[in-house]
Each structure stands twice: as structure tokens, then as C-alpha cells.
Amino acid sequence: GDAAADLLPAGVLCLARLGLVRYATPRAGELLGRAPAELLGRPLWEAVPWLGGPAGEDHMRAALLSPDPIRFHAGLPGGSGAHAGAPDGSRDGPAAADELWLDVAIHPGPTVLTCTFRPAHRLPEPSDEEAGGDVPEAPSVAPLYRPIALAIALSEAVTARQVSAVVMRELLPAFGGRRLAIYLLQDRRLYLAWENGFPAGFLDPFEGVGLDAELPGVRTLTTGRPLFFDSMERLTAAYPGIALDAERGSRAFLPLIASGRPVGSCILGFDLPRRFSTQERAALTALAGLIAHALEKAQRYESEAALARGLQHALLPRRLSAHPRVETTGRYLPGIQGMEIGGDWYDVVESGDGLALVIGDVQGHGVQAAATMGQLRTAVRAFALGDRPPDEVLAGTNHLLIDLDPGLFASCCYLRLDPASGVARAARAGHLPPLLRRPDGRTEVVDLPGGVVLGVDPRARYPVTEVRLDPGAVLALYTDGLVERPGADIDDGIEGLRAALAEARPPAAGPPLPALADLLTETARRTTDRPDDIALLLASRPGAGSGPRPSRPATGPHPP
Questions:
Q1: What is the pLDDT of residues 27-44, one digit of tens each?
Q2: Where are the domains of the chain?
Q3: Closest Cα to residue 71, out of 36, 30, 109, 102?
Q4: CATH superfamily of 2-136
Q5: I need a labelling partner for 44 at 20 to 30 A (CA). Which of 179, 327, 376, 401 fits?
Q6: C-alpha distances in angstroms, 288 versus 284, 366, 530?
């Protein structure tokens, strides 16, 4: 691919989202007057400053937000040496002096922007919006480009900590800052949400300060105006006696206000005195608005997530129904990345003289998914307590979900186990198939024909299959969060879980069933970016001579 691009008559550059040049063909370097090595790893507007004029700036923003290619003309700075010619600026290269314009096209992609450059043999018409693009050494576009790039990065942050990390990663480098503190307003007091670069313990006295405190971080929020101090001397002149974290430097205090509501304050620290230009002040003020809106969104998310966590914790079973001939244990792990709270659930219910083993997954996340899960769990329990056959349980729950019409669907696997014989009659609705480890260690994916997910087709039917759970065998029911990984086939994930269950010693000879459940979820518990929640239910009939084991309390939510 790269070799083919090198042969194209047009110059080609690939840019990362924040404008860093990741790939450059020799022809691109020739046309831009820069060797490819001088382009790679640098922001485009630094490597080729004359592309950072107002027109190029607007087109770069448009390319970030548009699904279609953006095309424009860029004027080469005549006489500067950085024109279409030899990399050293001479006019002996393939592009002669009459080629003082480039035809530039920016093609957006999911992770990179691809730029192509071709010599333009005529000037744009005077009516073109690009006219006058012959800009000599325009100032860096970084401060003005940053709001768009920061907005894209902030759109992916859902917690206050993630928002702060984005600001630290994306904003400070653009302005040469080294220190950052973000405070959030709660009950008319400011509390530190994130800090970096300040001396240890320096910010402790400012924790929980009220809005009547004579401090610049408070003043900027109560007045709604940013405060810029070009030096520490100017800061102390404005606020005599204020504690300083350094003898030299400069500071910016930005109000975080979203939708007219105060959210908090942002403090930026610089190691050296500096003059904040009008352009920089405007850019930082705009960035503060973006940060405030992202933090407001994060606070709403965290409130909803806390409500959903409490709701889901209340809806999951505290203790699984017990039977002297069957041991069961369950695990629930909330997601870590994104909304965190999903609709996964498991249950064990007395059903006649047997036990019903249930696992399910409501599509979606948040309070609605958790509430729908609670309704479905209640319905399944009611059908199970009536000792209804598995196909009738799923059909009845399907009709209930359709009648509720929450706009969600759910998968479910339901087994009615006879503890005396070990025969289970099972049905599933769009759920992943169970795993069965036999007493001799052979572990297989249970071939369990199923129907469509619940909540879609009122005429859906759910075939019933018999599964035998011999003494010493282990049955595993699970949700997709345990086996699904981005970019990987889910069948590979199921095979990995099957192998882990096969390699583990059976409870009769090794760890008890709860320890086996911990073993199977160990990798998931160590994962720091788990996007989905996880439910796991294990059931076993103790082998001969091992004696019956009582069912243990359910465990969930499990700490990540």
C-alpha cells in the first residue's frame, strides 16, 4: 500500500485526529517543500506553517466534522523557499515557478484524515472563497484548531475523571501548560476533581472552599469572567497573601459554566511568565465552555449511573434458592467503561420439586435497562413458581415484554432441573448456549436449539431440549460480556471460556463452586475498560461421597 502511494503523481499525507502527520509520500514532501522526515510526527500546521492560515484552518475543521471530502486551493508562499520545488527551496524541482498554488483534498476516515496535494496551474477565480490564500507565515492554527479536536475527544468522555484526563492530554500541550486543577461545584462549595503538576499537598487547604472566599478560582466562577495573570507577581498583587505553588510562572483561571449554570473552575499553570494574547484568551475561554458542558454531561451520567446501580443491586437476588442435591452460585460484574449499568441478571427459583436456573440480558444500558430487567426477572420467577414448562415461561415473558413496549429486547436461557435425576429441560431465547463440564472433565457447548429474543415476535416459539447434569458435573450459564471482545469473534470467546472450565478442577476434587466462579471471571475482573456488564451462574450436583452442599448467597455486584 505505501509503495503504491509513493508512485502516485499526487502527494499524500495521512493525519491523525489531532493533526499529527503519520505518513508522507516523497511527492508530498516535494510539493510542500519539506523532506518527509521533517513532516512525520509533527502537527501539519507546525511542519507547514503557511497551511495554517484562516482558509486552511476552516477547511481542516470542516474535514473533521464532514463525512465528505473537502477540497480547496492553497497558495504557496512565493519567495519563501517553501514552495513547490526542491526540498531545499530551490526552483529546480519538477514544479516550476508558475505552479504557486496547490489543489488540496482532505478525505475523512474513521481514525485518520488523508490529504492529497496536486500542483494547480492557474489561480482560483477571484470569487472563490479561497482567493487570497497566499499567506506568508500565518500564525499557528493550534489554539483555534484545538476547540474542534477537544470537542471530539470530550464527546467520548463520560465521567468527570475522563473529562479531566482529556483536558490534560489535549489542551495543556497546545498552550505549553504544565499544571492543571479542575474543581467542581457542589452545595456552594468547590471540590477538587482532578489535579496534575502541583506540589504534593499544596491544594489541600483549598478543598471545599465556599463561594465567599477571596480566591481567583472562586472569583472567576462567581463573576463568570476568566482571569489571566502574566506573572506570579501580578497574581500576588491582585490577591495579597495568596499561597503560591511556584515563584515564577503565569496562571489562567477559567469559569466552567454550562447552560447558564455554574459547574466549577479550571486552573491552568505555566512554568514561565507569559503574555496571554487576545487569540489565546478567546481560545481558552471557548475551551472552558466545552469543558463545562462535558462535565455537566458527566455529572448527569454519574447521577443516572448511581441510580441504576442502586436499582440493579436491589433487583438482583440476594440469595439463591437452595436444594440439598444442587449447589449453585452466581456472579455479577458491572461494566467499567461507558454507562456501566446493563440489564444482565441471573436467578435460581424453586419450581415444583425442582429448581429453575435462569440467566438473561436486556439490550441497552442505564436505568431503563435495569428497570426492564427487574420486570422480566419478576415475571420469570412467577412463571417458575407455578412450575410452568420452559417453553411456556419464555413465551409468557415474551408477551409481557411486548405488552410493556419499553423499546428494548432481551435474551434469556431457562432450565428446569430435576435434582433427583439430574435431567434438565431447557429453552433459550436468543441467548448464548450453556457450557457443560462432565464428571470426567470433558467440557462442551450444549447444543440447545432456541428461538428469537424476547420482545420481538409475539408468535415466537421456544423448543425444549433435555440436558443431563450428572453428579460431579458443572453447568455454566453466562452473558455475552464474559466472552465478547471488540474486534474478536464471539465464538472464540466462548471457546476460551469452555477451555477455562475444562482446565479447572471439579468442585468435588478442587475449589468449591464459588471459587470456580471467581476463577472464570478473574480475567474480566482485572480488565479496566470492560464495556459491558457480566452475569455468570454455575450449578452442580455434588458427586457420590462428597455429600450435599448448600447453595451459597448470590454475589453481586462483584467489585471489578
A1: 888 888 888 888 888 887
A2: 2-136, 146-307, 317-540
A3: 102
A4: PAS domain (3.30.450.20)
A5: 179
A6: 6, 28, 30
